[in-house]
Amino acid sequence: MPPLPDADRSGRGLPYALAAYIAWGLFPLYLMSVRSIPPVELIGWRILFTLPVCLLIVTFRRQWADLLGALFNRKVLPWLCLSSLLIGCNWTLYIFAILEGHVYAASLGYYINPLINVLIGTLFLGESLSRQQWLAVALAAVGVAILAAGALTTLWISVVLAISFALYGLVRRTLPVGSLPGLTVEAIVLTAPAIMVMVHLGSSAAGLHLGNDTPVDIAVGLSGLVTAIPLLMFAIAARRMDYSTLGFVQFIAPTVVFILGLTVFHEPLKPAQLWSFMFIWCAIAIFAWDLLRKRRNVKTATAT
Predict the structure, then answer these.
(1) Which residue, among 117, 102, 221, has the nearest Cα to 155 in the 3D structure?
(2) Spatial contact of 97 and 156, defined as CB atoms under 8 Å apart
């Protein structure tokens, strides 16, 4: 199925994809700033603070008609509920992985995800790859396999993260709903379970942890912006780019996470991880070179 035109605005999706993936790559730094908040509570606050941000942007962009149209569309709403479930599971597992010290497992999930995106693009969306791009896919697969071989005990984390986000992107790409209205409906759907979780935590012996540390409280309050803005940019990019190309751009995020693991979290770099990096970066270089070559050929043909 071809990508649907985004109702928000026209233009190419690459700048949005780059911004989203860089922001997601830096997300572990944000999580470390709020690590005093238990993961389940942090997820609840994240959802509750995301909805007001979405509603403010909807108001600013005068998209209430689009939002209500998506919310009361019987054909669209079930799919948005599915995308809400997928992204909610993705958020939950990613936060647990980072806060429990499985940074590389989380990163591996987003190295696997582009390969799944490429397969989805070629098998279900009618996209085609050149021989050079298939070579890039093969090299990246080898690099991911090397990483996976050294992380079998946490491989399930990586696989669930990869599949949930790939399916989320596929659902959002094919729905006739603008990026912002769709994201807002997802936040609305997730709000009810988030409230139930927070009520349960508030009535338990552990209680809620917000309000004990002003800097942490401010950081948690910003979770809505930290969540909504990159996800909105991704939703825009997913509707304006070939899914296969979008998948390879995504290698930016786990690479940033790996760099943070080395420089900020001081996790040791194993030889297998170094070899994996080499294969994956070779794949990215080949894929990027082929895209640039094709774009240059198109410009040359247009000029003549």
Answers:
(1) 102
(2) no
Structure tokens at 187: 């936040």
End-to-end CA distance of the chain: 32
Looking at residue 268, its pLDDT comes to 77
Q: Which of 268, 254, 275 is nearest to 109 (CA)?
A: 254
Structural contact between residues 98 and 28, judged by C-beta atoms closer than 8 angstroms: yes
* Residue pair 99/92 in contact by the 8 Å Cβ criterion: no
2 pLDDT higher than 70: no
pLDDT at 243: 66
pLDDT at residue 207 greater than cutoff 70: yes
CA–CA distance, 219 with 143 (Å, rounded to integer): 35
* For range 107-122, the mean pLDDT: 80
The pLDDT value recorded for residue 169 is 86
CA atoms within 13 A on the CB side of 284: 20
> Among residues 61, 46, 96, 63, which one has the least CA distance to residue 226?
46
What b-and-e string marks burial along 173-194, b requiring 16 or more CB atoms within 10 Å of the CB?
A: bbbebbbbbbbbbbbbbbbeeb
Q: What CA–CA distance (Å, rounded) separates 196 from 204?
A: 12
Residue partners of 162: CB distance under 8 A and separation at least 6: 109, 110, 112, 113, 116
Sign of CA dihedral 226, 228, 232, 238: positive
